[in-house]
Amino acid sequence: MEQERYNNASYWQIGFFSLNNAATNLYLALMGYTSYYANSIAGFGIVLISALLTALNIFDAVTDPAVGFLLDKTKGRFGKFRPFMLSGNLIMAGSTVLLFHTTHKIPHYLRTPYFILVYGLFIIGYTFQTVVAKSGQSILTDNPRQRPISTYFDSLYVMAAYGGTALFVGNYLVPKYGGFTNETLFLEYVFWVNTLSLICTLLAMAGIAAKDKPDRLPAQPAHQNIRVRDYWEILRCNKPIRMLIIAACTDKFAATVYSHTTVVVMLYGILMDDYGISGLIGVVTAVPTLFVVSAGIRVAQKMGQKKSLVLFTTLGIFFQTVMAFVLIQDNVRMVSLVPGKINGITIWFVGTYVLLNGCKSITNNMVVPMIADCSDYERCRSGKFVPGLMGALFSFVDKVFAALGTGFVGIVMLVMGYNHRLPQIGDEATPALKWTTLFLYCGVPILGWVCSLVSMRYYALDKKTMHEITEKLHHRSKG
To answer: Is the pLDDT assigned to residue 479 strictly greater than 70?
Structure first.
């Protein structure tokens, strides 16, 4: 009966398509080190770097509506989504090679415009692929029990992308090349990201291929004409997407801050005096964290995605508070993941990290299938199937707040007195640096999650409502 009521997907299709998110997050992790490359290798000052990256990230947001509009207009023989996935990945590959291989070789007076041009090219490719990540769920499956499963795969792949990156950089590249002042470190890093991201993209294309065909896409009204002003209409009339955007963008701001490369260096490389932990912690806690994520998915399948997001956001606030108390301890430098040196503070830190990271994975990734719910709501409300537009609206605001998060860290560094160089591994852990690290890593996420909880009070698409919407769409398609 369920097979007839819903557009179901195989688990392998959901898992493979989620690799599209992994492909973009590999690049996002790489670009997190841009500030260190630009400062240590290309010779940009801290103020210039912060201003450029903030402005370019805002440009990143501006590209989303245009690409989303273009995606909704696409009806080619190769599908609606797959051409954007492949072309976006290839653009990112070419632009990162240019950025990290050549910027420091450009004459100084041309270096800044060259950096802007190449980084802007990367942004276009990144937008092509991320718009698909936020809109492809709408055609993959509409089963309320299947959509949360993508959260598991997204959490797994994001942990692998960022945890693998931290492990690779902290325990292989940094020891091999002696830190972020060696340009060869960035060259090798770019090679591996290009290769792995392309593989992930090709597998993701295989995952959505059977659904990404003209005859499998939801039928559009014959008179439908997608216009630019539809963006405003949807924002005005689709309250669920507004509330979801508010919840997600405050979380995104917080995630950008606490995961910023500079904050990670301050936490592990200075406050804890062992930067290698930043990579090892992801490996050590991967399996336990996935158990927490699995619990979140079970809750979403039984109670709906909204209740799951609210529950784990609340738990995230609690565990982030506990983490602050852990990091405030004087013996936090004694945390060690080396067998034989594990002590009480290590167990406290690792245990809290597992529970906290599980909550972060759920809150950060649950919003992706919830965008598909908002897209179904819009199709039920107005009859328009505009997944690209829905994903672009979400991504636009999401990236603006990510840009603000990057700029915020830069401003904090300036206030701290880092005018010409970023904090480096091994710097002195002064009281000011300690409290600043605690604020950026613990305080900002708590504030973001509180805002998210407030917005979810006004988000109407719970499990019961989504069941009713799916039934209405099913009857329309039969009629």
So the answer is: no
pLDDT higher than 60, residue 49: yes
Query: What was the pLDDT predicted at 2?
Result: 45
Q: How far apart are CA 158 and CA 304, in angstroms?
A: 23
Q: Is 426 left (phi over 0), alpha (psi -120 to 50) or beta?
A: left
d(CA 369, CA 309): 12
Token digits for 169?
């950089």
pLDDT in tens, 428-441: 888 889 999 999 99
| pLDDT digit string, tens, across residues 173-201 | 888 888 788 888 999 999 999 999 999 99
Q: Where are the alpha helices (DSSP H) in 146-216?
A: 149-168, 174-177, 183-208
304: helix, coil or strand? coil
Alpha-carbon gap, residue 436 to 454, rounded angstroms: 26
CB atoms within 10 A of CB 196: 16
Name every residue whose Cβ is closer than 8 Å to that of residue 85 and which is 6 or more positions away in sequence.
20, 128, 129, 132, 201, 204, 205
Degrees to nearest 5, angle at CA 399 with 359 and 375? 75
- Return the closest-CA partner of residue 395 out of 71, 32, 146: 71
**What residues contact residue 202 under an 8 Å CB cut-off, 6+ apart?**
86
* Residues 6+ away with beta carbon under 8 Å from 203: 16, 19
> CATH second-level architecture of 12-216+227-478?
Up-down Bundle (1.20)
Q: Spell out the domain ranges in the chain.
A: 12-216+227-478
Exposed, middle or buried: residue 395 (CB in 10 Å: 0-12, 13-18, 19+)?
buried
Phi first, then psi: give them for residue 216, nearest 5 degrees.
-100, -10
Mean pLDDT of 203-230: 69
C-alpha angle with apex 117: 110 to 58, nearest 5 degrees? 125
Tell me which amino acid residue 173 is. L
Cβ–Cβ under 8 Å, residues 348 and 326: yes
- pTM confidence score: 0.68
Task: Give 289-311 pLDDT, tens digit per residue.
Answer: 878 888 888 888 788 888 888 99
Beta strands in 324-472 (DSSP E): none
